[in-house]
Specification:
Strand content: 5-15%
Number of strands: 7
Distance between the termini: 62 Å
Strand order of the largest sheet: 3-2-1-4-5-6-7
Largest sheet: 7 strands, parallel
Number of helices: 16
Shape: globular
Structural class: alpha/beta
Helix content: 55-70%
């Protein structure tokens, strides 16, 4: 009994000590890495206390130590040394904030924008250093990608390009998947997936030469099914899988690939009121009389309120995302996946490991946009 007690204390004390070291080291680390370590420790302690047995305690003990040490080793940063980074979607949101952040850290930054004469581009020119170059770069336009590539090559010359951050993205107007027009599905894929793929293919020779970094900004919605986001989520899921495949293929070239899956952060990805009006009209114009009758126009128009719900429940502090992207770009051993945001990592784990029925049940219990019921279902009730 005494031996068992001493062993139990050892199994608990050593990971606790390692966890303390990890948490101390994580003061300046990516936003959600600390949470992952806590989850890891919780899983280990839970499994031990559920008392699997002394044998399982000893199995989980070295595994915990190994994983904690792996996290520690990932926090050695490479020097900036005028490394050049290309960021797409710099007009606003993550891309805009990241451009300023990396500029402050001393990186040479190329910012691709949808409108080089727009307010976002003008603000970057006004507030950033001369290390920042703003490039006209609609990622659905192959010629603009080629032109941007030529300008990057001309400027970096022998220094090469260290990282590409595929950030540009759109969400469209959230609605039931049956209501979303095919044009909106195709547009989401064109920007969120095909655009990122084309930018990647154009700049990969430069990344292979520098043995640099490819960082793709996906979304928690690319791994967690969320109602009203069928078009957006599908495109982000495609980007996540593309990133995973490229991570394997590019490892032999020394290029490291990371995917960022943020939770809810307040950006301008939802667009403007004028854009919502157009998307609403597109939905109404493309529905068959039968579908319009079943859902009802009032229900369809209520879907716009989903964007107001998102806006009121998202985080205005983008620093967790910026810290994770910085880690992916600069760490000697970047992680394959990052999930900044309070609920992102737990939700991704939940959907990955729980039975589908369990996830569906609990997802209905979480706070979410309700937005009424389709007309036909209201009649049935």
């Amino acid at each position: 009994m005494s031996t068992f007690s001493e062993t139990a204390w050892l199994c608990l004390a050593v990971p606790a000590a390692l966890g303390g070291i990890v948490l101390y080291k994580l003061k300046k680390s990516p936003g959600q890495v600390g949470g992952k370590v806590v989850c890891l420790g919780g899983l280990w302690a839970g499994a031990y206390l559920l008392s699997l047995s002394l044998f399982w305690g000893w199995v989980l003990f070295p595994l915990s130590c190994f994983l904690m040490c792996a996290y520690l080793s990932g926090h050695e940063f490479l020097p900036v040394d005028q490394k050049a980074v290309l960021i797409t979607g710099g007009d606003s949101g993550f891309g805009h904030a990241l451009s300023k952040y990396l500029d402050e850290l001393g990186f040479t930054v190329f910012v691709g924008v949808l409108n080089e004469k727009g307010p976002g581009a003008e603000e970057l020119r006004r507030t950033c250093s001369k290390r920042v170059s703003v490039l006209q770069m609609d990622i659905t336009n192959p010629q603009q990608i080629k032109d941007a590539h030529s300008k990057v090559v001309e400027k970096v010359q022998n220094r090469g390009l260290w990282a590409v951050v595929n950030n540009a993205g759109i969400i469209g107007l959230p609605a039931d998947g049956e209501l979303i027009p095919m044009t909106n599905y195709k547009q989401c894929m064109a920007v969120n997936f095909f655009g990122a793929v084309e930018v990647t293919k154009a700049f990969l020779p430069l990344l292979r030469k520098s043995k640099g970094r490819l960082v793709n900004i996906s979304s928690m919605a690319g791994g967690v099914p969320i109602e009203k986001l069928a078009a957006y989520s599908s495109s982000k899921a495609a980007l996540t899988m593309f990133s995973a495949v490229m991570r394997q293929e590019l490892s032999k070239w020394g290029v490291k690939v990371s995917v960022i899956q943020p939770g809810g952060f307040k950006t301008s990805i939802a667009g403007t009121s004028e854009m919502w009006n157009k998307l609403e009209q597109d939905i109404l114009d493309n529905l068959t009389p039968e579908v319009l009758e079943d859902y009802g126009q009032d229900y369809i128009l209520e879907q716009r309120d989903y964007l107001k719900f998102i806006s009121g429940s998202t985080n205005t502090d983008m620093s967790p995302v910026l810290l994770d992207i910085h880690h992916a770009v600069s760490a000697k051993s970047p992680f394959a996946f990052y999930s900044p945001g309070p609920m992102a990592y737990p939700m991704l784990c939940f959907v990955s490991f729980s039975p589908t029925g369990v996830f569906d049940y609990f997802s209905k219990k979480l706070p979410h946009f309700r937005g009424g019921m389709p007309k036909a279902l209201t009649k049935q009730a």
